[in-house]
Design a protein that fits this description.
The complex is a heterodimer. Chain A is mostly helical. The two termini of chain A are 23 Å apart. Helix content of chain A is 80%, strand content 0%. Chain A is built from 10 helices and no strands. In chain A, helix 2 packs parallel to helix 5 (88-120) and helix 3 runs antiparallel to helix 5 (88-120). Chain A has helices at 2-9, 15-36, 41-74, 77-83, 88-120, 125-131, 133-157, 162-177, 191-196, 203-226. Chain B has helices at residues 2-13, 15-39, 41-46, 52-85, 98-131, 137-150, 153-164, 168-173, 176-183, 190-193, 200-206, 212-235. Chain B is mostly helical. The chains are: A mainly alpha, B mainly alpha. The interface between A and B is medium-sized, with 31 and 27 residues.
Chain lengths: 228, 242
């Protein structure tokens, strides 16, 4: 119920529409390019989600987290939660889980879009989905990691939630260049893109993704606990 | 008069904050450029691309990308923050003329835009000898002069989102559309890409030493585009009686 409340807080602000644009625009564009180049199956799956995972997902996460925090300060949401007997920590925890759920929904939407393109190209989408189940799982995990990072930034930056969006921008721009270099391991914003090319990953990379996500999640929980 | 109004605008936003953002953007831009050059040093030398023209071309490519973000932040602070604070309605009172206020905002933006380009240009001049590239002041000055005029198309493309959307964060986040367009530039037919303002500078950069007529035409078109955007921003109705 509280998570539904989080959803409603940003309802009719235009942020969901922008997130949808950030999803439809790259997936359809890249997908059609893939169909035009006679790609199908797994290759089309990777092509259609390529630029989305490289640039747009980073911005979408940055926008969602920054906007949500900005909205709270702008509309005195924290004050209202105190008036209604909801602790600040609980509000932040709800916010975090709302981001996770939103990200899963967001990925499902992008997968559906990609699925439509794959089906149009004449491949069975479910067989592709089963083939790509591991990358999809790790894609979500890396998304959670990015949410955690941006959440930490917003918690530290307090009212200056634009910083989180700026970091997302820097991450997106750097993601144009970094994933092709050996330094991508040090750069979490390039993980979603690298996960798409799952066969190029070593087991140690997967361990790294899981470890970083867990550590960042714990850091978020500690920071929430430290909030007054 | 204009100076005093700009001072007031700077006071509203925070002059030090604006300067810090400008310097940070410059440092990031230069850092990215230098990092790219250092990593690809060998390949560039082998391809005979270790020259001032190529250095400036690469450096300015990063500058365009950074300029998208830099202008998004600056427009957020200069223009969209009025939406955030709900202060556009002040324009309905007599003492402040909307046209003057908007012109002041544009001049303030241009001031920090010039600082951004000049500091970047100075950094380039410092880094060229460090990287072991022979310095040619003529080429350096000419390239940045072209940049300072034609790159205006980038922030004035970005302002479209800040005029369309009331929320500055949403408008800033949409600048990813420009970055996306810059990345996929080669997919457009040249005829179409030549007409999109965000590509103006890229067309000049890819030709390394462009001819004077092309530079002149792009400069005129850019200035016209900027003028149109300024007029649109002044004519826009920001305030409502609900």
């Amino acid at each position: 119920m509280a998570i539904l409340g989080e959803f409603k807080k940003m309802h009719r602000t235009g942020v969901y529409a922008i997130m949808l644009i950030l999803c439809i625009f790259p997936v359809v564009f890249q997908g059609l390019l893939g169909v035009y180049s006679d790609f199908d199956g797994d290759a089309l799956f990777i092509t259609s989600l390529g630029i989305f995972c490289r640039i747009f997902i980073v911005i979408a996460i940055g926008l969602l987290v920054s906007f949500s925090f900005n909205n709270e300060f702008k509309k005195n949401g924290y004050l209202n939660s105190i008036y209604h007997g909801i602790s600040h920590k609980k509000a932040l925890r709800n916010k975090l889980f709302f981001f996770y759920i939103m990200l899963i929904v967001y990925f499902i939407v992008s997968l559906m879009l990609s699925g439509v393109i794959i089906t149009v190209a004449g491949t069975n989408f479910f067989s592709v989905l089963i083939d790509q189940i591991q990358p999809i799982f790790y894609l979500n995990l890396c998304g959670f990691l990015l949410i955690n990072i941006h959440f930490i930034i917003c918690l530290m930056a307090k009212q200056a939630s634009l910083i989180s969006l700026l970091v997302a921008f820097m991450g997106a721009i750097a993601s144009i260049f970094v994933p092709a270099t050996p330094y991508w391991v040090w750069f979490p914003w390039s993980y979603p893109y690298r996960v798409l090319y799952f066969t190029s990953l070593e087991p140690v990379h997967l361990v790294l993704f899981v470890t970083l996500t867990i550590i960042s999640f714990l850091v978020v929980l500690v920071l929430i606990r430290a909030e007054r | 008069m204009l100076l005093s109004r700009m001072k007031v605008e700077m006071f509203k936003i925070g002059g030090k904050k604006l300067l810090a953002i400008t310097i940070l953007a410059t440092l990031l831009n230069k850092g990215a450029g230098i990092l790219y050059l250092t990593i690809n040093r060998q390949e560039l030398k082998e391809a005979n691309h270790w020259t001032i023209q190529h250095y400036l071309s690469i450096s300015q490519y990063f500058m365009i990308l950074l300029l998208v973000v830099f202008s998004a932040v600056l427009w957020y602070l200069i223009l969209s923050s009025e939406n955030r604070h709900g202060t556009w309605s002040i324009l309905l009172t007599k003492p402040i003329v909307k046209r003057k206020l908007l012109f002041t905002k544009h001049f303030l933006f241009l001031l920090f835009y010039i600082v951004f380009v000049l500091v970047s240009a100075l950094f380039s001049l410092v880094f060229l000898p460090i990287l072991g590239i022979p310095v040619d002041i003529g080429v350096w000055a000419k390239t940045y002069l072209i940049f300072i005029i034609i790159a205006l198309s980038v922030p004035y493309s970005q302002i479209i989102f800040h005029l369309l959307l009331k929320n500055g964060i949403q408008a800033a986040s949409l600048s990813i559309v420009w970055i996306f367009l810059i990345v996929i530039k080669d997919m457009f037919p040249e005829m179409i890409s030549k007409m999109i303002p965000i590509y103006f500078l890229d067309h000049i950069l890819t030709s390394i030493i462009p001819d004077t007529t092309t530079v002149f035409i792009y400069s005129i078109v850019t200035l016209l585009f900027v003028l149109v955007m300024i007029i649109v921003s002044v004519r826009k109705n920001y305030y409502y009686y609900d």
